[in-house]
Specification:
Blueprint: E1 5-8, H1 33-42, E2 46-52, H2 63-76, E3 83-87, H3 103-111, E4 120-123, H4 126-135, E5 138-142, H5 147-151, E6 160-162, H6 165-174
Parallel strand pairs: 1-2, 1-4, 2-3, 4-5, 5-6
Helix pairs in contact: 1-6
Length: 175
């Protein structure tokens, strides 16, 4: 049976923004992240992380380093994230997987039975709003991470703009 998904950006949305996060020791999960993910799961949503990780292509960290960070995030949220998808390419590579392109969402759709008509994308950048539009789903922008910097340059208006992931989740669950 298909379920809606909350596609969510990683850095600046679920965790504190650290430019090219490469070490688990530098990972800071926002305090609102674990309870918010738990609420989404209790309401029947998939929680799917979509993250551009060009630091791999830049040689700043390895794919193994990134997976260790994902494992630590998963541990911090009680194992409730359904899947992590990442793009390791540079912005200039022209790949299909880098947000705002649909490669990661298409991969998730291949792995999970997703009801796209009730799905959302939550993130802190313009490209998170763009990928939602490209996928035909609703979007939310948070003011953690790069949110304040991107708010003034939005080319597309998200359905929700709020302080953080916890507040956005609360709004989605009221709909």
């Amino acid at each position: 049976m298909a379920k809606p998904a909350i596609f969510v950006d990683r850095d600046g949305t679920l965790i504190e923004e650290v430019n090219f996060l490469s070490r688990v020791e530098d990972l800071i999960v926002f305090p609102f992240t674990p309870p918010s993910i738990k609420k989404l799961k209790e309401r029947g949503f998939y929680v799917v992380v979509l993250t551009n990780q060009s630091g791999i292509a830049r040689g700043k960290y390895t794919e193994a380093d990134m997976h260790a960070i994902h494992d630590a995030i998963q541990a911090a949220v009680g194992g409730l994230i359904d899947a992590f998808y990442f793009c390791p390419h540079l912005p200039s590579d022209g790949c299909h997987c880098r947000k705002p392109n649909l490669g990661m969402i298409e991969a998730a759709q291949g792995d999970l039975e997703i009801d796209m008509t009730h799905s959302w994308m939550i993130g802190d950048k313009n490209l998170d709003v763009w990928i939602a539009e490209n996928a035909g789903i609703k979007s939310a922008m948070v003011m953690t991470g790069y949110g304040p910097r991107h708010l003034g340059t939005l080319e597309r208006k998200p359905d929700i703009i709020d302080d953080d992931f916890g507040n956005v989740v609360a709004q989605i669950l009221l709909r």
